[in-house]
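Support reply, case 0932

Customer input (verbatim):
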Amino acid sequence: MKQLFNILAALVIFVLLLVAVVFLYSLAFAPSDDGRVTDAEQATEVTVTEIGVPFISAWVSRDVPALKNLLRGEFEGAIPDLVPWERGELLPFKTKQRISTEENHREQTGDFDIFFGRLLDQLAGVDVVSTEFSVIRSMSFSENRKSFWSIRLLLAATGFNEDGGISQYRSENELVSSIPPKSSEVPPSIRLWQIETELERVSQAPVKEQLQNLLAEKGVEIDDRSFYSMDLEDVDQDQDLDIAVTTKDGRRFLFLFKDGAYENATTAMGLVDQEVRDSLVTRPITAFFDYNADGFMDLLSNRQVFENQGGKKFVDVTEQSGVIEILGDPSINTLGELRRRFRIDQ
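Our regenerated output:
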């Protein structure tokens, strides 16, 4: 009996030693985590935070050196002239719409100045209030380029023009973002950018003074760009652009264009002008989108959704809209997630 016990004890000790050896071996020789991005969700977050945030800042401030720093092509080989996007192959390089970030090509053609000169021109004379850099699709670029990601991007800027009206630029774009492992110490960058569609809109009349007076009632200066955001859309389908504004403390305004001027139709359209405190709102969001595909643009105002009922009235449908799970967990790409799920308006 004692001999059997000794044998069993020896087996247990042997197994424990074997486990310890395997564990120590794995620590010594297993590949370490080099911080490589491995899925689309991670690629989205890195693209927005490490490319999008500095891009928007450089774009609005017209910081050309900073823009150029975000578009680099000095590592991981060249991008081919034809890029295998999700929907097939694009036409060969078009200087006015598409920019390759390869150093040699850029030096030969000067296409950076042509391409981003156009984007910068969109903001000439515009005092930007609201911007958007929303990733609405992220996918692996190719099996051979693990650090490259194909990005579908909605870019927008809205602000006051020199006449006191509102100007807006929007574009939908295809990007290739490069996100090397953190261990490489090479920052993420844009490898290729193609503008797919562009839209430029201007309000029919000035509205800045009206909004300035409304904000002043709460002791807020209109120059405090972090306190409010705005968007343009024809909410009543009368072929004129209307204006929605949302403040950080939850107040909202709706201006309809009637008889040659903008009138404050906030209360008449069901959007009660009152504070709605929400600690999860770190920056105000105003965005039109057609969540129910009825042809009338609905409104996202911070973390509330209002359904446009035939251009007559807005009704709070946050709970039943199907976006509560997105709005309940706000992230830096919340608006991108919203637009990705409700694509009928794009």
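We compared this against your earlier run and they match. Two observations from our side: The first strand starts at residue 84 and ends at 85. The first helix runs from residue 2 to 29. Please reopen the case if you see a mismatch on your end.
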